[in-house]
Structure formats: structure tokens, C-alpha cells
Design goal:
By secondary structure, this protein is α/β, with parallel strands linked by helices. It has a ten-stranded mixed beta sheet, sandwiched between helices. The longest helix has 22 residues. It is elongated and about 60 Å long. The two termini are about 15 Å apart. About 45% of the residues are buried.
Length: about 280
């Protein structure tokens, strides 16, 4: 069931974490989070700032000064955070173009294993460019993305909530979540999610849940099993994660689609936008 190119590609051997930054408080918070991850998975960190160059500008020197200022700020961030890294090194890269595309392109170019981006909470993706582009990064990235909400304390990853829906692709994230959990010695909560009480749907999600359980048993991953039935599934997932004091919620997106693929389509986007708990989004095809 799990042996396909996607899963082979994302077998976790962490090398580099890309962190999108615009120097806002949210993006700096994301750097702190990435440092904590790197200290466990022994990965390097690459900070990426994108110059949203306006090619029609009558004042090109303004663009140059922005880039020069970005160089200075990125160097200061490295001076601040490199000493906190137990393994690896922190570097930076400046790119030009559309923000979300350049973040994703950089991750592809260096074959990064993970992107970390900051969000700004329930009022939406708004302040600076990281907030407004985080959803696009999550939607279009082929590699996994963790979104971190500004203002929330950074915790060791000990519990991961992994919702499963009726989509056949929902189980494709299981091996990555299992590997991720093993790195942190975390417990995974396998949550079968349904919006209705229809027996066929319940049986489908329970079947996927059973397959996940078997995979976790085989790979010696700690787990618990639960089920949720609610028309507002995103709120229920977030509330469940709060109730069990989860440190991460793992969801899936469908790469190259116009939106996230989950129950009712928008659920994953709602979780990313509203969760106080960091969200790991894994692209499936």
C-alpha cells in the first residue's frame, strides 16, 4: 500500500530546512521553531527572503536598497540563531519574484526536506508577505510544510494528531508521519474523521485507520486511536488536538489543485489558518 515514488522520496533523511522570512515577528518565530527542529533532526537551515521586484518601477535604486538591507538583516538573524543550533549551519539566500513560488523553487533546488513558514492566526494571512503567502506555499509545495502561528510557545514534539478522511490518498502521509514521530519519539493520535453518520463513510475511514495502526505497530511507533464525527470537522480536529495537548497536527494537501483536498475541500486550509498548534502539511498526488 505504501511503496510508491512519493513515499520513497519523502523517507526522512533530514538535510535542510528552508525557512521563509520577511523579518516580521511571525517569521522570526518560525526561525526559532526551525532551530528546535534542527536540534533534533540534525538539519541545516536556509533562510530565504524574496525580493518582490517590481519590474515596472521607475526607481530601481529602491529595490537595490531593499536587497542590501535584507542582506544586513539576514546576517544579523544568523548571528542571533546560529549559536542556538547544536548541529549543522544556518545560511541565507535572496531570490527575486513571486514569494511563494521562489520559496518553493529554492526548496526544490536544494532538495530540502521541509519548509517552515509563519502565520498570523484567525484574522487570516495578512501582515507582511509571509502571512499572505503561507497558504500558497502550503498549497503548492511538493515537500512538507510546517506552518507556525506567531505568539504560541514552542514545545517539544511529543504528540502528533493525524486525521484520516475518506479520500484514498489520506493514507499516503502515514509513512512520513511515522518517520517524523520516530525522530521525536512522539505519540501519534490516529483520528478517523467523518462529517456524517453514513455507514459506508465510517467503514472507509475506520479501514484507513486500521491500516495506519498496522503500519505503526510494524514500525514500533507509539499511537492512540480515535474517531470524530462532526459537520464542522476542522474545528473538531483542532479541539481534539487541544484536548490531548498535541504539539503538531498533520494534514494533507493535493499538489497542483486549486485548494486543499480534505473533507469538504476547505478543511485543511481552515486548520492551517485557525490552529494555534503548528500544522504539518504533506503533499500527496
Amino acid at each position: 500500500m505504501y511503496q510508491n515514488n512519493y513515499l520513497l522520496k519523502y523517507k526522512i533523511i533530514m538535510k535542510t530546512i528552508v525557512v521563509a522570512t520577511d523579518f516580521s515577528k511571525g517569521s522570526v518565530h518560525a526561525i526559532s521553531y526551525a532551530v528546535e527542529l534542527s536540534n533534533v533532526i540534525k538539519a541545516n537551515i536556509l533562510l530565504v527572503w524574496v525580493n518582490k521586484k517590481n519590474f515596472d518601477s521607475e526607481f530601481p535604486f529602491e529595490v537595490r536598497s531593499m536587497a542590501e538591507e535584507a542582506h544586513d538583516k539576514l546576517k544579523k538573524l544568523i548571528v542571533r540563531f546560529q549559536p542556538k543550533m547544536k548541529f549543522g549551519k544556518m545560511e541565507y539566500k535572496i531570490r527575486e519574484g513571486k514569494v511563494y513560488q521562489e520559496i518553493i523553487n529554492q526548496a526544490k533546488y536544494i532538495d530540502a526536506n521541509l519548509i517552515v513558514a509563519g502565520t498570523h492566526g484567525v484574522s487570516g494571512f495578512e501582515e507582511f508577505w509571509i502571512g499572505s503567502n503561507a497558504a500558497k506555499i502550503v498549497t503548492h509545495s511538493e515537500c512538507p510544510v510546517i506552518t507556525v502561528r506567531y505568539g504560541q510557545c514552542i514545545h517539544k514534539i511529543e504528540k502528533i494528531v493525524m486525521p484520516l478522511d475518506i479520500d484514498n490518498e489520506t493514507v499516503k502521509k502515514v509513512p512520513f508521519v511515522a518517520d517524523f514521530a520516530k525522530l521525536f519519539d512522539a505519540e501519534v493520535h490516529i483520528v478517523a474523521c467523518n462529517t456524517t453518520g453514513l455507514e459506508d463513510m465510517k467503514n472507509q475511514t475506520e479501514d484507513f485507520s486500521t491500516k495506519a495502526v498496522n503500519y505503526f505497530k510494524q514500525n514500533k511507533i507509539k499511537y492512540k486511536r480515535a474517531a470524530i464525527q462532526n459537520i464542522n470537522i476542522s474545528d473538531s480536529i483542532i479541539q481534539y488536538a487541544k484536548d490531548v495537548n498535541a504539539d503538531l497536527i498533520s494534514i494533507k494537501s493535493s499538489f497542483n489543485s486549486n485548494t486543499f483536498s480534505f473533507i469538504l475541500g476547505s478543511t485543511a486550509e481552515e486548520i492551517v489558518n485557525h490552529s494555534n498548534i503548528p500544522v504539518l502539511t504533506i503533499s500527496v498526488k
